[in-house]
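A further point concerns the way the authors explain their paired sequence and structure data. The central task, working out the structure tokens from the amino acid sequence alone, is never made concrete. I therefore recommend that a typical entry be quoted early in the introduction. An entry of this sort, consisting of the sequence and the corresponding backbone structure tokens, reads as follows:
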Amino acid sequence: SYLPKARELRPNDVGILSNLGKLYEDNRDYAKAYNIYLKLNALRPNNLGVAKHLARNCYNLGTVYLNRSSATQNKQEAEQYMNTALDYFRNALPTFNSIVISDPENLEFLESLAAIYHTLGDEKNLAATNDKIRTLGGIELIGDGATPAIMASEGLEKEREQSALAKSRVDTGD
């Protein structure tokens, strides 16, 4: 891709950084995407879109490390992965809270916020977040076996919605 080369030439270009971050996110390279969105957040600290991408990638990194922790048989590795996961979730928490204050009916971020509270063992905030989710008609996070899931990037989510809409049109003959 030409974007990494363009970034070398113009390292603070918001458009290049946004496109590169999105490319990494869509390719599930959450660490690279996270680093790009950290830079974008420094350049555009009050941008809700940047905050959402930053939070999503930090959360996804936490989820990846949580899954690695569960998958390994090596106790020391599992502990290291778990600690890394918890660090990412703790780092994501303030951004998630800011997002749900700015966008209080965003079920995707509320449900992920509930997963963070659950993973961190914060039962009080988990209960309050589940109340909000229930009020909005979402799926509340319950049970000890509940684990966070990867948050889809906006591009992939739109593709899924369009695909579902196209399928429903075929199914209904519209």
In short: DSSP finds eight helices and no strands in the chain. Residues 75-102 form the longest helix (28 residues). The radius of gyration is 18 Å. The helical segments are 3-9, 14-26, 30-43, 48-71, 75-102, 107-120, 123-135, 154-172.
